[in-house]
Structure formats: structure tokens, C-alpha cells
Design brief:
The complex is a heterotrimer of chains A (653), B (315) and C (306). Chain A folds into four domains: 12-181, no CATH class; 206-500, no CATH class; 525-569; 573-646, no CATH class. In chain A, 49% of the residues lie in helices and 12% in strands. In chain A, the strands form five sheets. In chain A, strands 9-12-6-2-17-16 form a six-stranded antiparallel β-sheet, with no helix packed on it. In chain A, strands 8-3-15-18-19 form a five-stranded antiparallel β-sheet. Chain A has a three-stranded antiparallel β-sheet with strand order 1-5-4, with no helix packed on it. The two termini of chain A are 59 Å apart. Chain B is α+β, with helices and mostly antiparallel strands. In chain B, the strands form five sheets. Chain B has a five-stranded antiparallel β-sheet with strand order 2-11-10-6-7. In chain B, β6 (114-121) and β7 form a beta hairpin. The radius of gyration of chain B is 32 Å and the shape is elongated. Chain B starts with a helix and ends with a helix. By secondary structure, chain C is α/β, with parallel strands linked by helices. Chain C has two domains: 5-192, Rossmann fold; 211-302, Magnesium chelatase subunit I, C-Terminal domain (Helicase, Ruva Protein, domain 3), CATH 1.10.8.80. Chain C is built from 13 helices and nine strands. In chain C, α11 (242-258) crosses α12 and α12 (266-277) packs antiparallel against α13 (292-302). Classes of the chains: A alpha+beta (653), B alpha+beta (315), C alpha/beta (306). Chains in contact: A-B, A-C, B-C. At the A-C interface, α21 and α22 of A face α12 and α13 of C.
């Protein structure tokens, strides 16, 4: 204290440690960094390594200042601003890389380490999987070891790593306590930069030919559902997503959504209850089985029976749902609404003509629908993931020329034809089916389960679901995508049916990953409260949590203090027994002096208490043989302990 | 300043030299974060805000793990210093103007090794050392010695930032250490007062005749009485026996014989120089100070006695 | 009794050198440990008698060298003299060629002679005119030294002192022993009547046995702790050298053997410590001068037995 001292220069081993932790820190984020920055960082690292290897001088300050300016300008030209996640990370990476070229003193080393710690956090903005967590932990061990090497350069690499691992292991209980009990706040604390959630995939609110088949190529999980009771049979698992009404001849879009005023029905036996864990997709809609009864908190059910959240789903979301399977809504739909579902653009004349012809031939709406489905079934239509590209009159082209399509083609053509025949119809997108994970019982719905179907309004019945795909490829609905498309189509690897062992492995992995998602990544304020009340905390508010956190951390600290003060004596068991004798004799005032040898001691005791003499002589003889002679072995040691324990010391008169 | 110093004495229990061995019990080891430690805490705060803002569960986990690491470091640093035993070691006398080296012995009676323990005396340079498990080590703490007499270094600061530089544990001890500081020898003194010793000091020839000291080759001028005839009988070349007297040159270094206008320290400084010269030339010398006289003598012991008398003159 | 000749020797010696059993034992230990002995005491306390008695009882041939200032190394080692009959040099061995030598008042000899003697002691051989001659086995030197630093003496320097395994003092006899001494027969006559207690070669055998006395790890740790303490503590000017620690172990082994034990106890170390370490340890400057016994006692009580 008080003495001003300059920061000591770094040693070579410390420099190497810092280089290693920079590499480990930057490695997991490589995929999310602009290429020029990646190249620059790699060059800086190589430069630093070369300087280390050749014991060369560090670059001059003016050069570094120039590089900082150039890099900052580069970041600005890449992102056009400095605020937000990506430019922030880019700047941090830039600073870390350039700091490595400026490592002279301990202070610089500490700056590198702290930058590394901070950069580890930024990886989680992109990914929070278990693999990233594992890599981060590894990097953490190395960075901490580097920090310890800054405190003491002379120790061996293994010693630093061991110490670092030990300290992190000791820190883990604190992490657990804080993780569980730190009062969680639902972010964000301020407006999120616009680019925060780019790169999430999922259904959109428009549909063009090929959009769903593209999505189907992804094995990514869309959401998971856990049912109370049995999972309904597959043909009933229609997960309702965006409902599309507007058509411009090529693209279907949804119209303006309004909140439904009256409840769409009441709970009956066919009501299913389930919890959905939705992966973030940066869109406001939630998925529910047809038809949703009541919205979860913070969401609404629209007039088109679409469940909509008030904000886009940007983090994994869990919600409880109730659905009424087989419920047909909309029997009392207003005339104006129905008219909107008959709008058609002026193209696709052949389809329009065909539909009008059917209309003329059939009296009832149901007959027209049947006609259309029969058309799909009888003619040579193919269900395929790789349909040919379609031009201006996409529906004409599909129905009369290519005849190869995925669900969106069928749904689109069907709805078009129905409208042309004067039947109100619309496209519904969402997911169909799902797969039960036998390990944890969750139903997993993937992007490959994305689907599009149709709804037609029937007089007296309301909005009725018609799935034209089922006419072409009934297996798609009964058994899933894998059995429906012809062999050789490029299915997502994990969706294929034939690799059963792989499937087993996949189920297991996904169950673990789901647990991870549910309990680690999805541990939000709500989950925290649930868990704490289940653990018996009566009022899990922030006061109680803080108190519990303080108490538990205090206890952990006490435990660690005990460990720090604990003196592990490495005393030979023979010597321990002998010390015990001394302690016993101390009660009659005959403790051994620290420098007193065994023969002298026993002689002194025997003089003071002659009645102890024979027993003591035997004990001392055995002790001497064990400690100073060649006698060894457990048996003899046990005997010595026994003799000392059995020694009767009458209190002195 | 006075109340602050008094408070510090009370807080850190500094009550003068302590009996040895001094054990750094847990009550006298203090722990506080260092400046990098505060920076670390600030970085954790930022990370926590980031984790909250972006709802990063793993961000929370990382931040909390690092917070735990900070707490664990606290105890590791504490453990690195606690229960070290300190006892005073060797201290060699020095001349004023040189650095005194205070020996300290550190004992580690526990299994974990102690690392990067930094010791320093107020005003001296710091020394960093490690302590192997269940072992002892000796360190020498330098301190410039400015004035002759006993130099008491006062308290020793032991501190460590091991293992993560984030926390500083320190303790103050005051071992019973002192160093004898001889006066600084005068740089360019007048020559040894061999003649000035006059009637009190006798300068005798180095060639005595009483005690046999060895043989050397015969020179024509040597007395035939001193030829080693026994050796001649063994057909060896002529050798001359050498004898030495009991005393060689003797010199008295007298305080009162110095010029009267010389100050006390200047006198001591000159006497010190003369003592060293006399010793280096192998003379027998004695020292007369007001109220103290060290008889003629020779050798290390004599030198030490005389220098000690000069160092402590007036105490 | 396993080593009865030793007991016999001690018993017989004790009858002549009265009240000095500890010194007799130490001298014997020194001999058994193949070391040399320095006795520092006033004239007339029985140094010479002790040497004589030991030589007689152990069946060793005995020479005595009285050191003076004009003694030359050749007076100790011997000289080669030209023999006119053979036409070559004939080596006439000096008094050092004996199994037990008493070097009286070694501090009267000049440093040159001292070092010649001490080198011979160390090497167990002498080199004269380029020829190396072995000394007899066993070879045991008892040197005596006057404690008072008189003018004209050459006290043994530190490095030479280290060559003696032990330094002991005789001390005045106690009242009882002195009365017996004054009233009894002349000691020199009694020495003449003594019969050896050992066969030739038996002593060498015993010296070999000493090396087999068991030293445990715990004991080595104790010796180390003692040595380390002297090296670290400010109470001593210089600490015990590794050679001193070895000497301590050697002497303790012999002490254990004459105590009829085949293992060394800490007590053995403590028993030989004053004699072995006394002349190797010096209190630091400033501390009051203490006797070897006091220094050793302070050392023993400062170091716990591990």
C-alpha cells in the first residue's frame, strides 16, 4: 500500500498463456464474424506468435494506433453503426487481437484476460447449445490458468491448469446458487437493436411455391409439446400457424388480424391440454392444435383462430394451451368476411375454367370439393420435395403441366379452385404431425413437419379443414414426411426412417438437449418462481430470493474458509499413536517434550509413576521398533494403537 | 497524522517487536480486492447487464461462475498467506551507506505450497519468494542503512496476490530484528598514524626470534645459527629457519589524538577507515575512545569488537 | 551380551580413569566410528592416561607425539635417509605410523606441521617424497589442546577442527573419584598391568558392525531438522555442514552400538551432539559465549523430534 510500483514486464511463458487464451476465446465465434475481421484477427494472432517465437520487438505504437483506427472504420463500414450486438462483438475482437500486439506489462496481460472473459459471453448471443457451453468451459479453464500464470510465472503448465480447474470447481456451487436464486428480470432492459434476432428460421406469413418444401429440408426443431395424457393420433395433429387469405397469383399472404371476441367453444372430453416449448422464430405467432380454445397469457386468439403473441418470439417460449380437436368454428361467419375469401386475381384461366365447370356440374359444395380431391387422386400427381419451378400462371402450370408438387402446391391449387367455384376458402400453414421422443415423452415437431392445408366454409358447418395433400400422399399425414416422399429425395438426415439406431441416438440426444433447453436456457422468471415454490419457498419474491442467496453463499464461503484453514497433518500413523500416548499422559502432567526421545520419555514417566513402567516399556519397545527400527506393517501398528488405547492411567494421588 | 497512525497501530496490532516465531493467524491476515480485482468486478457487472438484456441463460451462468471464482480467489489468496510462521534470521553488520540485509525465515507447516509471497520493509525493496509444502525458506530484506548504530527495520509487510491477481492478502509483522550499522569509513583519510603512536605504540620488526615460523631458502646474509641443519643432514638445500616475534606492528587508534576541530561523526568515520586499513595490513591494533579502551589485538574478533564500539559510540 | 568386549573395555578403563565414564564412552565411540578425537583441557586431568588405557585395552600399538614450535612435518611423518650400504634412500617412518597416536598440545605445532598431521588423519595415508604409504588400520588420533590462548600457540583453524569427529573436555574429577585417585595406586603402574580385551581384528570387525546399525527415515529427518535449525537460526554464526550432519549420524550409530542397540534413537543423537557439534558451532557475534554443552542443549531443546 502506498508504494507506487510499475507493472512488471511479462515473461515468455505468460505471453504464451495469453496467446493460447485468445485463440481459445476467439475459436467458438468464428462462424459469426465478418470474414475481413476474421482474417485480420488471425493475422494478428500469427504476428503475435511470430514475435514470440523469434523474440522480436513488438510493433510501434503509431502502427497499432493506425490499426485500431483502420479496424474501427472497417467495423463502421460493415455495420454502418457501432451500437448493437454485432458491431460490439467485432470491436471487442479487434481490441483483443490488437492488445496481443501490445503485451508488455502485467497490466496488458490482465486486460487481455478480462477481454477474453467478456468475449466468452458474446458467443452466447449467437448460440447457447451444450457444445458452445462445453467449449466455453474449456476456454474458461485456460483463461483462468493464464490469469494464475500472471500471478506466478514460474509454475508448471499442469499446475496452473490444475489450480484453475480446482478453483472453477469450487466456484461451481456459487454459480448454482446464484443461477437458481438470483432474482431474474425479464429482458430486455432497453430497446433491442434491430439485428439482434436475424437468422432464426420458421414459417413466415406468406407462402410461395417452394417456401415450405425448402423449410422441410431442415431437421431443426420448431417446438416441443408435452401433453397431459395421451398424445392424439397423428392425423389429428394439425398445428395451426399463419392463416393466408390474400393471393396475387403466386404468393399467399395473411390479412389483417383481429382479436376474436366471443369464445370459440367450450371444453369437452375432446379437449386436450398441453404445454408447448417454442423455439424462437422472431415472429409473433404461436402454434396450437386445431382449434385453440383460450390463449395463454400475453397472447390472443384471432378471428381466424390463430394464436398471436403480443411480441415476436425471440427467446424460447413456454406456454400452456388447450385445444378442442374436431371443433369447427365459423358457422356464423358474416357475409362480408366470406366475400373476402372469394377474391381471386385475374390469372390462371384454365384452372378457373375447370372449377367453373365443376360448379356447373355439381349442386352442392361438398360435391365440388370431392371432385377436386378425386382429380388429385385419379390423375398422375406426385408428391415431391423437389418440384419444378413454376412461372406466371403457377396454378395452371402445376395442375395441367408439371403435376409435381409439395403441400403448398396442392393447398394453393385447391383453395384457388374452390374460390373459383364460389366456395369461400383459405390456406392454413403450420405443422403437421410430430414425433414422440420415447426418452422423455415430449412430442417433437421439426421444420420438416411444416405443412400447408386448406379450409373451406360450408353452409351450416363453418370452416372445415380439407387437406389436399392427403389425397395425393395419404402417408404424409398418417406416418410423416419420410414415408410420403419417394426414396432418394434429399430428406433431412435425421428425419429418415431407415436408420433406427441413429434414431435412438438422436432421441437420446434430443431429450438431453430438451432438458438443457427447459432447465438451463429456458430458466426465466416464471420457471424460477415455479421451481422455488416447488422447493418449498412460500413467497418466492426478490426479497426472499436475495436472502436465500445470501445465506447459501455465506454457507458456501464458510465451508471454503474451513477448507482454507484446515491443516491436513501428514503424520506417520505410528507417530500419531505415540502422540496420543503423550496426550493421555498429559492428563497426569507427564506430557512429552517436543525434543524428548522415546527412551528418555518412558524413563521419566516410569520414574514418576513406577506402576506404569512395564506397560510403558512394552509400548515404547514396539514404538521404537516401528519408528526407528526395521519393523513395519499394519498388524504391528494396530497392536501399538491397541496397547496405547488399553493403557490404564490411574489419576495421580 | 498522529491519530491515523495510532488507529493503524491498533487495527493491525502493531505493538513493537514480537516474540518468535510469529504465526500469521487468520485474525491478522487482511484481504481486499486489488485494482484489477475491481476491474474484474466491473466487467462482471457489465456481463450481468448483457445477460439480462439479451436473456442469455448461459450468460447468467458464466457471470455467476466468474463471480464464484472471485469469491474462491479470495479464500485461495487468504490461504496462501495464513499460518505462515516467521522468525528472525541472520543479520550481518554493515557500514552506513550500504544496504542492510535482514534475514527472515518463513516456515510453511502445511501441505499446500505458498507462492509469490512478497515481503518488504518500509523504505526497502520488495522480495518475492515461494514456500514449498512443509518447508522453510530464508529471505533477505534489503534496507538502506543511513545512520550508524542499531538499525531497527520496524514492521515487515507480507503480501500475496496469488493465485489470480484479483485479491491482495497482506499482514504486518514486527520480528525482533536489528542490524548493527558501523560508521561509514572515511573516503580519503590521512594515512594510519603509525608514527604518531610514538611512545604508546611500539613498532617492532616483523622478524622476531622467539617462535619458529617456517623455513625459507638460505640467503648468504642469514645467520648460520638459523640454518636448518637437520635438513642439511637429509641432503636438502640450505634452508633458513624463520622465527616470528609475538607482535607484529602495533598501532593505537586514539580518539583524543585526532585533530580537535573534527566532529564526532567525522572522527568515527576516520577511525573506522583506519581500523579497516590496520586489519587489512595484518597489524595489531587497539582503540581508545572516551570512556572505553579496547586492548591491542588482531583478527576478525578484534575488528568486530572495535567496529561495534565505534558504531555504538554515544548510545 | 552381544558386544561384551566393549563392556569389558569400558569397565576396565573406568577403573583407572576414574569418574569419566562418559568421556571413555565417547572416546570409544569416536574410535568405533573411525573418527579422531580432540581433547581440550588443562594439563593433568588424565588425557594421556585415557589414551594409554584405550590403546592397551584394545590391543593397539601406541605412539605419542609431543608438539613443539620447532617440530617439522618430517618429525611426524618420517624421513627418507640415504643409505650408503644400499646406495638408495631408506624411509624411516615417523611416529605417525601407529594404530593409536596421542598428539599432545597440537596447538603448539606450527600450522605447517598441523596440516601435515591432519592430512594424514584424513587420508589414512602419508605422502613422502612422492611416495604414498598407507597408515595402519585401525588408525586413531587423540589430539590434545590447551584451551587458553597463550602467546606463541597456533589454535587449530575451523577447517582443521572439522577433521576431528569429536571434541571433548575431561573436566576435573568429582570429589569421590579424586579421593580414590589420590589414595589408590599409581595410574601408570595400573596401565602397565592391563590386558587387552580384544583380539586383533576384532576392533575392525566392530567398526564394520557400526555401519550396519539401522538408521530410519524418521531419524534422518531429525538430524536434518537439527542441521537446518543451525543454518537458519540467528543464534549461530555458521550452521552445521553436511559433513557435520554425517559425522553426527556416524557417531550416533556407534553410540547406539555400545548401548547394545541395532537402531539409532534420537537420544543417541542427543548424547553425541555436544561432542560432535560443539567445535563446529559458534554462537553468533553479540551473543554471550557459551560452552559446547550449553550450545548443544539449547539446540536440542529448540528442535522438536519429527
Amino acid at each position: 500500500m502506498g508504494i507506487k510500483r510499475d507493472s512488471p514486464p511479462l515473461t515468455r511463458s505468460q505471453e504464451l498463456w495469453l496467446l493460447a487464451c485468445a485463440v481459445l476465446t476467439l475459436a467458438p465465434g468464428v462462424a459469426h464474424v465478418p470474414a475481413w475481421l476474421l482474417a485480420a484477427a488471425a493475422m494478428a494472432l500469427f504476428w503475435c506468435a511470430a514475435i514470440w517465437w523469434r523474440r522480436a520487438a513488438l510493433p510501434p505504437r503509431w502502427l497499432l494506433s493506425f490499426l485500431v483506427l483502420a479496424g474501427t472504420a472497417g467495423v463502421f463500414f460493415t455495420y454502418r453503426h457501432f451500437f448493437g450486438k454485432d458491431p460490439g462483438i467485432a470491436l471487442l475482437i479487434l481490441f483483443l487481437a490488437l492488445k496481443l500486439l501490445e503485451m508488455r506489462r502485467l497490466r496488458d496481460g490482465l486486460a487481455v484476460v478480462f477481454l477474453c472473459y467478456f468475449l466468452l459471453l458474446t458467443h452466447f448471443l449467437n448460440e447457447q447449445g451444450m457444445d458452445v457451453a462445453g467449449l466455453t468451459l474449456l476456454a474458461l479453464v485456460v483463461i483462468t490458468a493464464a490469469l494464475s500464470s500472471l500471478a506466478h510465472a514460474g509454475r508448471h503448465v499442469v499446475d496452473h491448469l490444475r489450480l484453475s480447474a480446482l478453483m472453477l470447481a469450487q466456484a461451481a456451487p456459487f454459480m448454482l446458487v446464484l443461477f437458481l436464486l438470483f432474482p431474474r428480470v425479464q429482458g430486455p432492459l432497453w430497446g433491442m437493436p434491430a439485428d439482434a434476432y436475424s437468422g432464426m428460421s420458421g414459417l413466415s406469413d406468406s407462402m410461395t411455391p417452394g417456401s415450405i418444401s425448402n423449410l422441410s429440408l431442415s431437421g431443426e426443431i420448431a417446438f416441443r409439446a408435452r401433453f397431459e395424457g395421451e398424445i392424439p393420433p397423428k392425423p389429428q395433429l394439425y398445428w395451426r400457424g399463419p392463416v393466408l387469405r390474400l393471393f396475387d397469383g403466386r404468393t399467399w399472404r395473411s390479412g389483417i388480424q383481429q382479436e376474436k371476441v366471443s369464445p370459440g367453444g367450450t371444453a369437452t372430453e375432446s379437449t386436450v391440454r398441453y404445454t408447448v416449448t417454442l423455439e424462437p422464430h422472431n415472429k409473433p405467432w404461436l402454434f396450437a392444435l386445431e382449434m385453440p380454445l383460450a390463449p395463454p397469457s400475453g397472447a390472443i386468439v384471432s378471428r381466424e383462430y390463430q394464436v398471436l403473441s403480443k411480441t415476436p418470439v425471440r427467446s424460447r417460449l413456454r406456454y400452456d394451451m388447450q385445444s378442442h380437436i374436431g371443433f369447427v368454428p365459423g358457422a356464423d361467419e358474416a357475409e362480408t368476411v366470406l366475400r373476402r375469401h372469394l377474391d381471386l386475381p385475374g390469372n390462371n384461366p384454365r384452372t378457373r375454367a375447370l372449377a367453373e365447370q365443376w360448379r356447373r356440374e355439381a349442386a352442392q359444395d361438398e360435391a365440388v370439393i370431392r371432385r377436386m380431391l378425386d382429380h388429385f387422386r385419379m390423375e398422375q400427381f406426385f408428391y415431391t420435395l423437389t418440384p419444378p419451378l413454376l412461372g406466371e400462371n403457377s396454378i395452371d402450370q402445376f395442375l395441367f403441366e408439371t403435376r409435381r408438387g409439395f403441400c403448398e402446391h396442392y393447398a394453393s391449387a385447391f383453395v384457388f379452385a374452390m374460390r373459383a367455384a364460389g366456395i369461400p376458402a383459405r390456406v392454413v400453414t403450420g405443422y403437421q404431425g410430430g414425433e414422440r421422443n420415447p426418452v422423455d415423452g415430449y412430442l417433437i415437431v421439426r421444420q420438416s413437419d411444416a405443412h400447408a392445408w386448406a379450409e373451406v366454409w360450408l353452409e351450416g358447418k363453418g370452416w372445415t379443414r380439407v387437406d389436399p395433400t392427403a389425397a395425393v400422399a395419404p402417408n404424409r399425414i398418417e406416418a410423416g414426411l419420410a414415408s410420403a416422399v419417394p426414396a432418394g429425395e434429399p430428406l433431412p438426415f435425421l428425419v429418415r426412417a431407415d436408420l433406427s439406431w441413429l434414431k435412438q441416438l438422436r432421441f437420446r440426444w434430443e431429450a438431453i438437449s430438451n432438458t438443457w433447453n427447459q432447465w438451463v436456457l429456458g430458466f426465466d422468471p416464471q420457471r424460477q418462481r415455479e421451481l422455488l415454490s416447488r422447493l418449498g419457498m412460500r413467497q418466492p419474491d426478490w426479497k426472499a430470493m436475495t436472502a436465500a442467496m445470501a445465506v447459501l453463499c455465506g454457507l458456501l464461503l464458510l465451508g471454503l474458509t474451513a477448507w482454507a484453514l484446515h491443516r491436513r497433518a501428514r503424520i506417520d500413523p505410528v507417530q500419531r499413536a505415540w502422540n496420543r500416548l503423550s496426550r493421555r499422559l498429559a492428563r497426569i502432567g507427564l506430557a512429552r517434550q517436543a525434543w524428548e526421545g522415546p527412551a528418555d520419555y518412558t524413563q521419566r514417566v516410569a520414574q514418576a509413576r513406577p506402576e506404569l513402567s512395564p506397560a510403558l516399556a512394552a509400548i515404547a519397545g514396539l514404538y521404537i521398533d516401528l519408528r526407528y527400527g526395521k519393523l513395519a506393517g499394519k498388524e504391528a501398528r494396530r497392536k501399538l494403537r491397541g496397547m496405547i488405547a488399553d493403557l490404564k492411567i490411574p489419576p495421580s494421588q | 497524522m498522529q491519530p491515523v497512525a495510532a488507529f493503524k497501530r491498533w487495527l493491525f496490532r502493531l505493538y513493537g517487536p514480537e516474540p518468535s516465531p510469529i504465526v500469521l493467524t487468520q485474525r491478522r491476515v487482511y484481504v481486499l480486492p486489488t485494482r484489477p480485482g475491481l476491474a474484474y468486478a466491473a466487467a462482471l457487472g457489465l456481463m450481468l447487464i448483457g445477460a439480462i438484456n439479451y436473456n442469455l441463460s448461459l450468460g447468467y451462468a458464466l457471470t455467476f461462475l466468474l463471480a464464484g471464482l472471485g469469491l474462491v480467489t479470495l479464500l485461495h489468496t487468504f490461504r496462501n498467506l495464513v499460518r505462515i510462521e516467521i522468525s528472525p534470521g541472520r543479520v550481518e553488520p554493515v557500514f552506513a551507506g550500504d544496504a542492510a540485509h535482514f534475514g527472515l525465515q518463513l516456515h510453511n507447516r502445511r501441505r499446500p505450497g505458498r507462492f509469490a509471497i512478497r515481503l518488504n520493509l518500509a523504505g526497502g525493496e520488495a522480495v518475492t519468494t515461494d514456500l514449498a509444502p512443509e518447508a522453510s525458506t530464508a529471505v533477505n530484506l534489503p534496507l538502506p542503512a543511513h545512520r550508524r548504530g542499531w538499525l531497527r527495520p520496524g514492521r515487515v509487510t507480507l503480501e500475496t496476490r496469488y493465485p489470480l491477481c484479483l485479491v491482495r492478502a497482506w499482514s504486518y509483522v514486527e520480528p525482533d530484528l536489528r542490524c548493527l550499522v558501523y560508521p561509514r569509513p572515511e573516503a580519503s583519510p590521512p594515512p594510519l598514524p603509525l608514527t604518531a603512536a610514538g611512545e604508546s605504540g611500539t613498532a617492532r620488526s616483523g622478524r622476531g626470534s622467539e617462535d619458529f615460523a617456517g623455513l625459507r631458502t638460505h640467503q648468504p646474509a642469514d645467520s648460520p645459527r638459523h640454518v636448518a641443519w637437520k635438513a642439511v643432514a637429509r641432503e636438502q638445500p640450505l634452508l633458513t629457519k624463520q622465527f616470528s616475534g609475538a607482535g607484529t606492528v602495533q598501532v593505537w587508534l586514539d580518539w583524543d589524538a585526532l585533530p580537535p576541530d573534527l566532529g564526532i561523526e567525522a572522527r568515527l568515520s576516520r577511525l573506522t577507515r583506519w581500523l579497516l586499513d590496520a586489519h587489512a595490513q595484518g597489524l595489531a591494533y587497539g582503540l581508545r575512545l572516551p570512556g572505553r579502551e579496547i586492548p591491542l589485538g588482531q583478527g576478525e574478533r578484534q575488528l568486530q569488537d572495535c567496529l561495534e564500539a565505534l558504531a555504538l559510540y554515544g548510545d | 551380551m552381544p558386544y561384551s568386549p566393549i563392556d569389558e573395555t569400558i569397565r576396565h578403563a573406568g577403573r583407572i580413569v576414574l569418574g569419566k565414564e562418559r568421556q571413555i564412552r565417547l572416546a570409544l565411540v569416536c574410535l568405533l566410528a573411525r573418527g579422531h578425537l580432540l581433547i581440550e583441557d588443562l594439563p593433568g586431568v588424565g588425557k594421556t592416561i585415557l589414551a594409554h588405557v584405550l590403546a592397551k585395552l584394545l590391543g593397539l600399538n601406541f605412539h605419542r607425539i609431543q608438539c613443539t614450535a620447532d617440530m617439522l612435518p618430517a618429525d611426524i611423518i618420517g624421513v627418507s635417509i640415504y643409505d650408503r650400504n644400499t646406495g638408495g634412500f631408506q624411509f624411516h617412518p615417523g611416529p605417525i605410523f601407529a594404530q593409536l597416536i596421542l598428539v599432545d598440545e597440537i596447538n603448539r605445532a606450527t600450522p605447517k606441521s598441523q596440516s601435515a598431521l591432519l592430512e594424514a588423519m584424513e587420508e589414512h595415508q602419508v605422502t613422502c617424497e612422492g611416495e604414498t604409504r598407507p597408515l595402519p588400520d585401525p588408525f586413531f588420533v587423540i589430539a590434545t589442546q590447551n584451551p587458553s590462548h597463550q602467546i606463541g600457540t597456533f589454535p587449530l583453524p575451523e577447517s582443521q577442527l572439522d577433521r576431528f569427529l569429536m571434541r571433548i573436555d575431561m573436566g576435573y574429577p568429582d570429589r569421590e573419584a579424586e579421593r580414590e585417585l589420590l589414595g589408590g595406586a599409581d595410574r601408570r603402574d595400573m596401565v602397565a598391568t592391563l590386558q587387552p580385551c580384544m583380539e586383533p581384528g576384532e576392533l575392525i570387525e566392530l567398526q564394520r558392525t557400526v555401519r550396519e546399525v539401522h538408521v530410519s527415515e524418521a531419524l534422518i529427518a531429525y538430524v536434518q531438522a537439527l542441521a537446518e535449525h543451525t543454518r537458519r537460526s540467528p543464534e549461530y554464526e555458521t550452521g552445521l555442514s553436511p559433513r557435520a550432519a554425517l559425522a553426527l549420524l556416524r557417531a550416533a550409530r556407534a553410540w547406539a552400538m555400545i548401548d547394545h542397540r541395532d537402531l539409532v534413537l534420537p537420544e543417541d543423537i542427543q548424547a553425541v551432539l555436544p561432542a560432535v557439534a560443539g567445535h563446529r558451532l559458534h554462537p553468533a557475534s553479540g551473543a554471550p559465549a557459551a560452552s559446547a554443552a550449553d550450545t548443544a542443549a539449547a539446540l536440542i531443546s529448540a528442535v522438536p523430534i519429527p
